[in-house]
Amino acid sequence: MSKNSKLFLKIFLPLLVVVAAVHICIFYASGRRSDTKLRPVQTPPNADLSKLPQTPLPPPEPEVPAEPEFRRAETLPYYDFSALRKLPADIRKLAKTGKSGVIVDLSSRKVLWAKNPATPVPIASLTKLMTALLVMEDISSGRLAMTTRLPVTSAATRVERSCVLGMKRGEFYTVKELIAAMMINSHNDAAAQLAASVSGNTDDFVELMNKRAGELGLKSAKFNSPNGLPQGKKRQNSLCSVTDITRLCEALMRYPQLLEFCRMRSFQLHTGKRVYSHNNLLRRNPVKGLFGFKTGFTNKAGFCLAFGVNRRGRRFIGCVAGFASARDRDNFCRRLIEWSYSTQR
Fold first, then answer.
1. DSSP character at residue 41
2. How far is the C-alpha of 219 from the C-alpha of 240, rounded, in Å?
3. What is the pTM of this model?
4. Which residues contact 161 (CB under 8 A, 6 or more apart)?
């Protein structure tokens, strides 16, 4: 071996070995740091997290915009009473048998006829119109669905035996069935059951009814039950003016599903029982274009009716209360509707 070769082995070869070893250590350490970033750190139990090294979090991904919350209707608009007209003598005679009433042309929002339109009067089962509104608002907000099955509660079984389904604990009814029973045949226990599904109990629901009435600007409304049955020793009715009931009906017109029930003559429940409408304007010689809303009766309230009619795009809605008989009420409403359509806009 030459002298130069011996010199290379003695001096440069050890140097190369050292350089190679250093590079290997650098690459190994780099790989360890990379692995540490990829693997989750195992925090020992009971560790003081405030003393652990803090690693900055990556920037958050952009959030998907949430669906807007359901917004309840604002204060309901008032009507124009500047265009009141005089009824023909024969219809005016029929009007005397009722305490109050109003009819509105929705195309112009003008009131064609009114009698004591702002006076709070007992409204009997017209109370259920507010119950229906609150239920439909819960359906629109997603809290309820027509197909939701509700277990019968004590709120329904305790209702006095006056126009009831006779529901029993352990049974289930869908929201759709209960709305149908309430709006078509005016079943009082169905209204109580729906109230319990919205607020948990009747008292809280009645409070919600009055709060909602205030939000909508129904200043004459004073509800004391979800179904309109007289309450307490004095057998007090819910109170409202016919004008405010008509405005409440206008709010219900936002819910086509509900109006379907208002037009039904009957509906069959899952139990096999069929409920039938009390509205004679639907059942006997039906009024053309009738699409709503509800009948009502108690001894103090007399016979009441809220109605809506649509013919060729011209819509009238109205309410009457305090008639001595269903026959007088129905005859008057039929004549009033036909007279309204005969008037010029």
1. P
2. 8
3. 0.79
4. none
Q: Is 190 helix (H, G, I), strand (E, B) or coil?
A: helix
Strands 266-268 and 239-240: unpaired
| Omega before residue 293 within 30° of 0, cis | yes
Q: Say which DSSP state 165 is in.
A: -
The dihedrals phi and psi of 308, each to the nearest 5 degrees, come to -145, 140
State the pLDDT confidence band at 41, using cuts at 50, 70 and 90: very low
User: Cα 241–329–213 angle (5° rounding)?
Assistant: 20
Least-confidence region, from 10-14, 46-50, 78-82, 183-187: 46-50
Distance between start and end Cα atoms, the chain: 125
CA neighbor of 179 nearest in space, from 136, 222, 126: 136
Q: What tokens were used for 8?
A: 């290379």
**Residue 291 in contact with residue 262, Cβ under 8 Å?**
yes
The pLDDT, as a whole number, for residue 7 is: 52
* The pLDDT of residue 22: 55
**How many helical (H) and strand (E) elements, i.e. helices and strands, does the chain have?**
11, 11
Cα–Cα distances (Å) from 201 to 146, 158, 206, 328, in that order, read: 20, 12, 9, 37
> With b meaning 16 or more CB within 10 Å and e meaning fewer, what string describes 279-298?
bbbbeeeebeebbbbbbbbb
| Tokens of residue 239, six digits | 């109170």
Alpha helices, DSSP H only, in the chain?
3-38, 89-95, 128-141, 154-157, 175-184, 188-199, 202-216, 242-252, 256-262, 280-283, 326-342
Phi-psi region of 47 (alpha: psi -120 to 50; beta: other; left: phi over 0): beta
Q: Which residues contact 180 (CB under 8 A, 6 or more apart)?
A: 261, 264, 267, 269, 275
- Mean predicted lDDT score pLDDT of the chain: 85
**How many angstroms separate the Cα of 203 from the Cα of each of 7, 133, 175, 186?**
105, 17, 20, 20
Give the Cα separation of 25 and 17 in Å (integer).
12
The answer to whether 334 touches 317, Cβ cutoff 8 Å, is no
CA–chain centroid gap for 38, Å, is 50
